[in-house]
Amino acid sequence: MAYADFYTNFHLFMRWLHVIAGIAWIGHLYFFNFVNVPLQGALDDAAKKAVNPKLMPRALWWFRWGAMVTFLAGLILFTMIYMYTPGMGFGPSASFSDEMGVTGRGVWILMGMLLGTIMWFNVWFVIWPIQKKILSGRASAEELPALRKRAGLFSRTNTYLSGPMLFGMLAANHYSAINGATLIVFVAVSLAAVWVAIFHAGRVGQSV
Ligand code: HEM
């Protein structure tokens, strides 16, 4: 039985790492939004003080590091698939572009990656800094509601964006067809996701 070459093995390992880290990240995102928000609303202050210091740091650790590993493995995958050709070296590969320009696969992954990167940015540069401030007790009582609302807004936005983001990830390799209409639908659904998140989070004002 022949063994696959290093590129093929490493490629599959990166795909596995990317998806398993993505599960850890998006799984915690859904837990925060669909399970924890209603739970926190049902707990009184004493129960929150007992539960949250044990729950939140651990859940946020898996959440943010899941996001980081997903992102880094995703960039490695992008380089390996779209910016490298085995035997030829680095540069746009046939998966990324042909004589007609960027391929359908290339367009889908660029759109999926754009949304994934926005989501990763929201985790590391908005949600986590706010949560760190709240958990460390450095936020004043007056600041807390606004901080929770902002974290909740970005968390909800990421939750809704995960739908079109994952569609882009999967469409790259398993669909590829692209034209003006599919592009418009994709962009419209992504904008609608952000709009619903802002509208909904603004109304209920929940935290992460
Ligand atoms: C954070 C930024 C992200 C980047 C830069 C990124 C990048 C990539 C790349 C380059 C591919 C390969 C596409 C191809 O085969 O043509 C891919 C596939 C994929 N990604 Fe992402 N991704 C990101 C986020 C995510 C997230 C959050 C998930 C959630 C689970 C995810 C799930 C997937 C899946 C399921 C595939 C398809 C695997 C397959 O068909 O074998 N990605 N991603």
Overview of the structural elements:
With 208 residues, this protein is mostly helical. The chain has one domain (6-204). Helices cover 79% and strands 4% of the residues. It has five helices and four strands. The strands form two sheets. Strands 1-2 form a two-stranded antiparallel ribbon. The protein starts with 5 loop residues before the first helix and ends with a helix. Bound molecules: protoporphyrin IX containing FE (HEM). Protoporphyrin IX containing FE (HEM) binds next to helix 1, helix 2, helix 3 and helix 4.
Q: Roughly how many Å apart are the termini?
A: 51 Å
Bound molecules: protoporphyrin IX containing FE
Separate helix tally: 5
Note the run of SSEs as H and E: HHEEEEHHH
Structural class: mainly alpha
* Average predicted confidence as pLDDT: 93
Main beta-sheet annotation:
2 strands, antiparallel
Helix content: over 70%
The total domain count is 1
Strand content: under 5%
- Radius of gyration (CA) equals 20 Å
Pick out the low-confidence regions.
none
Keywords:
208 residues; 4 strands; two-stranded antiparallel ribbon; binds protoporphyrin IX containing FE; mainly alpha
Short description, anyone?
The protein has 5 helices and 4 strands; from the N terminus they run ααββββααα. The protein is mainly alpha-helical and 208 residues long. A two-stranded antiparallel ribbon has the order 1-2. A two-stranded antiparallel sheet has the order 3-4.
